[in-house]
């Protein structure tokens, strides 16, 4: 093997049961949040929260049509990350990747990407629903705990993924 060209075979590793369940939950809740918007469309006021500050308070209001941006971005993110899951040979790996551990690295990388993808979908679903709820006056903000909890969850997932990758021999 040439030392200048990394070892990256194309392998077809089936999705695990957990990955399949995560996709169903993540995408399912995302779709339900979009349906929630459609069901509530006629009662959503013309002005909706356009942005929240770090404390979860609305700091910009915008047109109700801005709510379509989140489903568009969420769908694009889902499609892009799903495509990247199918190409683990394109992910970044340490130099110790070789014939004996390539399948472990690919699977670990793909599982991490799957979890991050579905957490992002859940984030979009939550934000879509909360924007509708704030705009209708059901709640006043996302709450002060939203941002720290989201950052803690996503950071923890990434740290655990990196730790699990480091355990691969």
Element-level helix/strand string: HEEHHH
Give the number of helices. 4
Could you describe the largest sheet, including whether it forms a barrel? 2 strands, antiparallel
Radius of gyration: 20 Å
Strand order of the largest sheet: 1-2
Distance between the termini: 19 Å
Question: What are the key terms here?
Answer:
single chain; 169 residues; mainly alpha; 7% strand
Task: Give a quick rundown of the structure.
The chain is mainly α. The chain is 57% helix and 7% strand.
Structure report:
By secondary structure, the chain is mostly helical. It contains four helices and two strands; from the N terminus they run H-E-E-H-H-H. A two-stranded antiparallel ribbon has the order 1-2. Helix 3 runs antiparallel to helix 4. The model has no long low-confidence stretch (mean pLDDT 95).
């Amino acid at each position: 093997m040439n030392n200048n060209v990394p070892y990256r075979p194309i392998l077809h590793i089936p999705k695990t049961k957990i990955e399949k369940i995560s996709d169903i939950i993540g995408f399912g809740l995302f779709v339900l949040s979009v349906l929630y918007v459609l069901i509530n469309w006629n009662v959503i006021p013309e002005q909706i929260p356009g942005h929240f500050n770090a404390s979860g308070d609305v700091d910009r209001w915008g047109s109700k049509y801005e709510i379509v941006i989140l489903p568009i971005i969420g769908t694009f993110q889902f499609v892009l990350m799903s495509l990247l899951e199918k190409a683990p040979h394109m992910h970044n790996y340490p130099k110790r990747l070789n014939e004996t551990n390539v399948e472990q690295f690919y699977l670990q990388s793909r599982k991490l990407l799957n979890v991050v993808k579905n957490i992002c979908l859940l984030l979009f679903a939550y934000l879509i629903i909360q924007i509708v709820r704030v705009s209708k006056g059901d709640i006043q903000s996302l709450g002060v705990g939203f941002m720290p909890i989201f950052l803690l969850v996503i950071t923890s997932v990434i740290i655990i993924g990196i730790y699990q990758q480091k355990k691969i021999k």
